[in-house]
Amino acid sequence: RAVTLFLLLCVSGMRAEIPLYSVPEEAERGSFVANIAKDLGLSGEELSARQALLVADGEKQYLQLNQNTGDLVVREHMDREELCGQSEPCLVRFEVLLESPLQSFRAEVRLTDINDHAPVFLNNEIVLKIPESAVPGTRFLLESAQDPDVGNNSLQHYSISSNEYFHVYTGQQSDGRRYAELVLDRALDREQQAEVAFSITAVDGGTPSRSGTALIRVVVLDINDNIPVFTRSLYKVLIRENSSQDTLVVVVSASDLDSGTNGEIAYSIFQNSEKNLQTFKINPGTGQIRLKKPLDYEETKTYEIHVQATDGGGLSAHCKVEVQVEDANDNAPEVIITSLTNTLSEAAPLNTVVALFNVRDRDAGDNGRTTCELAGEQPFSISLLASDSYALVTSEALDREEVEEYNVTVRARDEGSPSLSASKTLLVRLLDVNDNAPTFIQDIYTMVMSENEPAGTSLGRLRATDADAGENAHVRYAIGAPPPGTPATASFVSVDAESGTVRTLRRLDYEKVRAFELVVRASDRGSPPLSTQAVLRIVVQDENDNAPVVLHPPPDSSAAGELVPRWAPSGYLVAKVVAVDADAGQNAWLSYELAKATEPGLFRVGLHSGEVRTARAVTERDAPRQRLVVLVRDRGQPPRSATASLAVALVHGFSDALLQLDHDPASKQQPQVAEEDLLTTYLIASLACVSSLFLLSVIALATAKLYKARLRAQLSPPSANCYADGDFASDAVDVGGMGTLSPAYRYEVCLTTGSGRSEFQFLRPVL
């Protein structure tokens, strides 16, 4: 039926499942089943106001809904065996439709079986012919009793009256039905007893239980030593439904080694099912099984036939024939509209439900598997709700200004061969509303600001347009709320609600925040208002606001001490200056240069590595103590710099290094500037004394020459003298007694008496 109310329903709220109800079969009319209103959470007044309607899933209405109370009651007499046969569970399906808003609730009522049928044998008397040669333990299949009930109410077991020859065995077939086999306990003797008679009882499991009885007469035959033998004990056949009457199903075959009448075989269908006798027939002479009537897959899918072959002597054998019915595509799909919204707002969101419908196909497999599609290109799609229930929903934005109404054709098609189909056409009209949301010109806006930018600086402008007019086109801007747990980036910038201008709210430090994103929203003033979002990305540019920091040598020491041997060649690595800059990019690129040195030509600094190396080979004329100042500069605008100081000692060896360190003014924390001033004073004093000392030196030299010439004539040839530890004057340097050397490392010093110089050499250590 068509619902002419304006309804916007989402798929998630359109269809719901309510509990599975149950009612016993044969319930009287008016019997209470359940209270639908209570399960739906509605009162009787709400149920009546929303015009609740019960739609049966079939041609006949077995149930009835009271709109005032919400009670679901039995309307028509229901026989479970008539409706479902042996199928279990037996379900009666229906839907409850509610209006304002339109909702559909699907429910099922299960018909529970009552024990209203007793087991019945098709024949009141069963005659068995058994040869007296049958050995104990031989089994003889008996005719099965029929009970249309299911579950525990169906046939459960067989029993026989007391006798001295047989007991009964109850077995179960693949379809769950029980069958009886007569088991021989004691050998038969025709001369003693030619016939054995007793009763068989079939009992179901109902409460109270029901039963059926038949008489079994066993006729004992003289010995016929060969029984018929089937070529196969089980025949499996696949036959297509709708096959015509007299269609050949299968041919069973048995042989008997006896001759004459004992070798003649007659075939018959054992009466284990009335349905089998109504559907199949067998030729007693040839064993051909043919159809009595066409098969219907939707009614019965599998048949199990027991065939008996009996020879002229009364011996028999049995085989089983399983007939599988193959489904044919003989049922076209049906499209059943359960709900329809004739008018729809053009602003309806995606997946808004327009109509609800069911598709049914009584076939199975691919023949019963259906697909739904829409004819033509339209802004609608089909959404699957359940196995056979669908919803027609919107798949695109609707615009009444372009199309005012749609004729939607729903086509259902099965996957059989050949495929069958059915279609249904629906008329949908659109209602005009504020259906155009603002649109940003860009999805992502990127703006750049410098660090330390003052608050209130304009960074740029957002812009959004709206295709509507008037208030519906008046756009206002705002910053969206950040997700929980994210930084409050909205406190960094603001957006003017009218113009969309983005301004800074505070200064930012590039070293802490390099970039951030936030969501901006543009909303119109329509009713209801529509909005859209875009991403605003702010990139912070670095400023050169951090000077380089020297890590080595440590800035807290007055000067770092480095030792360089006198033999150091050009390029000798003296030290390495290490510095970092907290800025980024070009502002963090560092260069090194020698700003100040005692002898500028002696050392050089790597421009990018900071390595201090000798620019030339060290000579004896170079001052033993050197002081270097290295300048570290970045490439920012304006550039920032830092300095590092190094003290370098030029030494001959390890002992000389100790002497240099012991007399190093840096070790006594004397300023280098004061040392340089003293050196200048000493040079001036030395130049003043040169002239006066020159004359004294000439006189002393002449006197010394005369004195040495006189002594040479009196003394013996020169010999070398060695001085051990303790032979030096007390004011001499005690190398062995230095705190950093072991007393065991002492040296012998040898001087010649004829040496006129003050030089000496270390020869070897005294251990």
Automatic annotation (TrEMBL):
Gene Ontology cellular-component annotations: plasma membrane
One GO MF term: calcium ion binding
Phosphoprotein as UniProt keyword: no
GO BP terms in the entry: homophilic cell adhesion via plasma membrane adhesion molecules
Membrane-spanning residues: 679-702
Subcellular location(s) per record: Cell membrane
Topology of the protein relative to the lipid bilayer: Single-pass type I membrane protein
Function field: Potential calcium-dependent cell-adhesion protein. May be involved in the establishment and maintenance of specific neuronal connections in the brain.
Protein name: PCDBE protein
Gene expressing this chain: Pcdhb14_1
